[in-house]
């Protein structure tokens, strides 16, 4: 989760918080369901932290 926050924070410096959206690269089709869930859960937690930081 922290890696997502770090990468998104760097992107915020370039595009600003109002123009940043987190999303998957859609490369999860062949991954096991539990791995996909963990990745989406981490992205959701990162989004929550970023909202608190940049709100």
From TrEMBL:
This is Unannotated protein. It comes from freshwater metagenome. The lineage of its organism: unclassified sequences, metagenomes, ecological metagenomes.
